[in-house]
Amino acid sequence: MKQETHWIRYSLYIISVVLHWSDSNNERMRTDRMIEERSKRGKAMVERRQLFIEMRGQNFDVIRLSTYRTACKLRFVQKRCNLHLVDVWNMIEAFRDSGLNTMDHNAEINVSRLETIVSSIYYQLNKRLPTMHQINVEQSISLLLNFMVATYDSEGHGKLSIFSMKSMLATMCGGKIVDKLRCIFSQISDSNGVMAFAKFDQFLHEVLKLPTAVFEGPSFGYTEHSVRTCFPQQKKILLNTFLDILMADPPPQCLVWLPLMHRLANVENAFHPVECSYCRSESMMGFRYRCQQCHGYQLCQSCFWRGHANGPHSNQHQMKEHSSWKSPAKTLSHAISKSLGCVPIGELPHPLFPEQLDKPQDSVPHTVGRI
């Protein structure tokens, strides 16, 4: 009897030890998971900060005009994330391959699904690039993912709407602005090809989070009056009217940074064999600015952006932006040809497109259907 009681006590002791070990092990596993999750969040925060630290290192905040400042910052983010290498048509194809064209715009996806989509975009990009120009895919995924989360999920819900993601990627990818705007129009118009004001308002709400993300919200943040500043009188907006207004010179104030970001990309390697009237640099790269009042007074983009002026010139003078250099002889020849009617006086800012949107396609032709 005593021996039996001893074995019962011993068994109970073993069971208690096993349960204690199991509880301790489960607690350790929970602790390890918490540490791992915090480590991942911490790593994401570091990578997120790193992008903004690098952006601040470019000293964009010394740029006097908010339009140029915003465009420069977003162009930096675009290049740092290698989005400038992804053409808008490739982006449309990525949307379709991911099944996003069949999902409701207001539906949400979690960050894990977003990471899968972004990964696919970059891996497909590397397949198109020459071996010598391959990008660091993992770094690009991390930078873009963290920027998107910081921009569209600042409260940390772990989800983004389909429309937010499409609006951001279609705006920040590479390609012609007219193709991007056609892509965007397909998202905000009805089956008859007429723009829905409520959807355009939603687009502005999402796309204007981009300037806010780079600390330019006071200049280009969303307001409830933003839609009417773009289309103050028109009641029925079709594709060509939409393009006319958004590609006008100047464009609507809330989106003025968007075409400028594209012009920045086009002039990064533009060379002007002209001396800057302020810093006396013998040549210029990028934009060149000519004063409309002071004869022969020209500034490089660095001096103009910083508001430098000397002599009789003033920052209040009207300046004309030049993206290329033409010799005086060529300019004179062009002016003579134009006066004789040999050169068209004005050109359309974009081709005229059919007002009725195409039906969805399995491939990606150079016409925009529903995406």
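[next item in queue]
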Amino acid sequence: MNLQVKTKNHACSCPGADLVFWILSSAFVSWGFFFPGTTRVLRGVVLLAGILTSIVVISSTLYMFWSTKNGCDFHFLGPFLFTSLLVLIAFALIQVFMPMGKLGSTVYKGLAPILFSAFIAEGTDNLIKRFNYDEYIWAAISLYLDILNLFLALLRR
């Protein structure tokens, strides 16, 4: 059984992809069994963050497919998102050295999920329009990191 990525004129066969898929899948499933105590304490928070992340990813993906069909382009978001991420990092560093209390923490916790949701939308747009069949691994890694950042931003208390 080989995984194949097919486009209109090309097919890329990856003979070792099945083995890698099963190794990674078993690793992620086994982590759930080895570390049950970490999620037992905050089970409700983790579940809520997972549900919210799933809703954002599914709705963003559906919207990107719809907007691609209608000719919309979201490539212009890249520089704005990068600048916003730098501002968020600077804000976090300022919080470390000069704590701003609950207000600063609330602002950070409110802006981070919005920013990472926009990163997911832009990453999905890039995945659909800009990556070709040889770059699907980088596209998947990029989108995975966007989803992980959103999940971690939602877990912050």
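[queue empty]
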